Amino acid sequence: MASDRIVGIDLGTTNSLVAFMQVDTPVVIPGEDGLNLLPSVVALDASNQPVVGNAARNSLIETPERAVYSIKRLMGRGVEDIQEELKLFPFRLAEDMQPGEVLRIKLGDKTFTPPEISALILRQLKRSAERFFGGPVTKAVITVPAYFNDAQRQATKDAGRIAGLEVLRLVNEPTAASLAYGLDKRQNGIIAVYDLGGGTFDISILKLHDGIFEVIATNGDTHLGGDDIDNLLITIALDDIRGDLDLDLRRNAEAVQAIRKAVIEAKIELSSQPSIKLDIELPGGQHYQREITRAQYEQLIQPIIDRTVGPCKQALKDAELKPEQIDEVVLVGGSTRIPKVRALVKELFHREPHIDLNPDEVVALGAAVQANILGGGSEVTENMLLLDVTPLSLGIEVAGGVTDKIILRNSTIPASAKQFYTTQIDGQANVAIHVLQGERELAADCRSLARFDLKGIPGMAAGIPRVEVKFLIDANGILHVSAREQRSGKEAEIQVQPSYGLTDEQVEGMILDSFDNAEEDFRRRQLIEARSETSTILAALEKGKKSAAWGQLTTDEKKQIAKMEKGLAAVNAEEDYQAIRKAIDALNQGTMRLAELMMDTAVSTALKGKNMDETDLGEAPTAPHPMAKAEFE
Amino acid sequence: MINSALTAISAKPLTQDTHSCWSCGSMRAAHFCESCGKVQPPVPVDYFSFFGLPPKLNIDLGTLERDFYDLSRRLHPDLNARAGSREQEWSLEQSSLLNDAYRTLKDPIKRTQYLLHLEGVELEEQSKSATEQARATGETKKQIVPPDLLEEVFELNMELEKLRMNKKVGEDDPSLIAEIGKQKQSLEARHEALLHELRTYWKAWDTLIDRGPAADAERAQVRDKMVDVLNRRNYVRNLVRDVNAAMED
Predict the structure, then answer these.
(1) What residues of chain B lie within 8 A of the CB of A418, using their CB?
(2) Cα gap B213→A475, rounded to integer Å
(3) pTM
(4) What is the pLDDT of residues B164-191, one digit of tens each?
(5) What is the DSSP string of A251-301?
(6) B166 CB within 8 Å of a chain A CB
């Protein structure tokens, strides 16, 4: 049933994934290229069409001014709080940005808000899922860092809506990981999830009890991750180049991206090698070469990974637990592959952390489990229920610019609090309320969530009206406010002015694929994709006919292929995408032996020193035709 | 302008068996229907009644947790995600009420404060924000120093002031720090003793509840004693917090 097709999405800083619960096992749905990870990179191609993933990644080096990565860092933030990011990341803001406005990022000469860019990533994942199911997908569970505030969560939800997805639930990433982990282990006890990803860090402590996953405490840093290591290494390389070669490349976007690519590769290798040699070709043909040992690297990154210690200690303190009381520690996020990070976790929690689930995929798999629970559950998830908490205290600004906390951090959500307000002058009709999020005492140090105006309070003497305002944090960690004047029983009107974020109307105007047209859009897109696959397979066949392998086929085989080729060409002119797919499949089958013969040639060529990567053939059912993949240049 | 004390929820106990399920009509419906499982519209009740508990202070935390989990399995929005929008709304409200109630009842101090609030007592706002607010607006915070602490508090405040001055000019006085540390330890011991005292009143309170309206006058006395202990306890806790802050700064 289409309504049960709820997917789980991990919208990551570096990579994004979509997963689905297949009977009783969550599985990652691969993309068009057969790969599970979709790089969270968006670019505009030469004709100003957005491209996402690996295709966009190439553009980072070739046309960096038309590409953007790590957009998650900007979700739900204002221009005044991204000054650090602007120094370290090549984000290009629109020139006419006003303070308080939702950020607009330039790609080429167009501008996009962070939710719109995230929506392009989500749409790509949605399409992968639709290809997988052979039908439209309109509902999703999306994960967010546990430490995301209200504005960052709202921005993520907006991104889903823009992508044509109904976001049934935002799930905290470490909690999602614990679901995948718990499904696997089925044990009771206390677990800690240490999640160090591309751009965010979370620590969550959970109690697992007969299928209930109760978060006891969470903490983190939404601007700490592998990105910070990359930026540190880039800065060092740029300084070296300036010192040794007297070449200032800081303003050279292409060169910086080439260096970034090289240091990321070095970083990954240093998790398994004792040392690496950087060798980067610079503009002008000079080379930057440097050897980095594991020991040097670990010394460099120590200050970055040490920033995870404070949140871990705070979470333990909030949970009122000692490290010895934690039964298991689970590692999540690509950056936990770094041996030094593992050593730090071991030291913090006095035990060897778990690494048996793929740290890149476990969050998406958990999101799929949660999607299954929301969809009514299955045999394996029947008993499972997630009880999450709000990561930050909710407060109201009171006299003197002080924050009065009304819902404390680590309160199980949904959570609510009531406040009573009255007027200070006779006949006063409005009361202004400032809602804040954070742990600091002064309102100015907390995150401003929204300003509300209670309007239409009936005219009474000062101090007589009694307005009850109810603050409710829902299961997504998003705040809702309602108000009632108690003496008149009148619902007070609330005007929400979100401090950061898009209005409903703005989101409405950005929606990429309309919900109403989901079926029609899907059909049209399928047709386009089927036709493009037709041209790919026909082109591959043309190439095949010219290859030596063609001569090895029997006359009968050649005749069969010619017949199917003609059949495909005929249906391709029609509008029925399913007929086209059928014809493609037939031709696919019919050319299997040809493909194999060509592969044999390819492999033997590869063994002579050609690129082996290109022979990687992906898995059914979504992998492209093997002939298309086996092409060699 | 703002009444920032505990939230006011009507203290009327819920007469649960008079409610019938909106969906199937069964009379076995409180938060959810025992017959068809549907979530029911929330009825304003106090936190004790929400869990079907009498307004007593000794609570079996194991049972409370089990009930919390059981009710979560019925009321949580995740398990009602496919219900109609009205039911989803109820589920959200019921489950937030459940969480608020559990959070309040599982913590001994919050539980006592809440019960006193139901009894019509509003404790002095002792939160850090109230202190900050008083400081910012120049009002003196209404705070009565417990008489048995007067001398100690006076001395401690002098020492803390000295410590802050020292830190400002970058001086280090190990003997002062040792002295403050000693006082902190004594405060912590006092805090423990107050909690112990509070528990003895719990017991008295619970016994009097069983005796019904006849014991109202005695109950009022125990209530006032608990208010006194809580105020002293809050005062001591704030002092410990101030000491910690001064040492860390």
Answers:
(1) 7-9
(2) 41
(3) 0.80
(4) 888 778 777 788 888 888 888 888 888 8
(5) T-HHHHHHHHHHHHHHHHHTTT-SEEEEEEE-TTS-EEEEEEEHHHHHHHH
(6) no
CATH topology of domain B16-106: Helix Hairpins (1.10.287)
Q: Return the half-sphere exposure (C-beta side, CA atoms, 13 A cut-off) of residue A399.
A: 15
Question: What are the distances in angstroms from CA B98 to CA B21, B48, B64?
Answer: 19, 11, 11
CA A350, CA A327: separation in Å to the nearest integer?
10
CA distance A49 to A455: 45
Let me know if A227 is a catalytic residue. no
A195 is catalytic: yes
Return the DSSP state at A91: -
Which residue in B has a C-alpha nearest to residue A463's C-alpha?
B1
- Note whether A417 contacts B7, CB cutoff 8 Å: yes
And the tokens for B111?
């539980």
Q: What is the pLDDT of residues B75-92, one digit of tens each?
A: 999 988 888 888 899 999
Q: Catalogue all structural domains in chain A, each as residue range(s) with its CATH number.
A: 2-175+360-379 (3.30.420.40), 226-304 (3.90.640.10), 394-504 (2.60.34.10), 518-629 (1.20.1270.10)
Among partner residues B73, B99, B136, which is closest to A401 by beta-carbon distance?
B136
Interchain pair A402, B1: CB under 8 A: no
Facing residue for B2 by CB, picked from A404, A472, A475: A404
Query: For residue A409, what are its two tokens?
Result: 């951090």
Question: A117: closest CA among A152, A163, A169, A62?
Answer: A163
Indicate the DSSP class of residue A62. H
User: Which token pair is B30?
Assistant: 């409180």
Cross-chain residue pair A419–B95, CB shorter than 8 Å: no
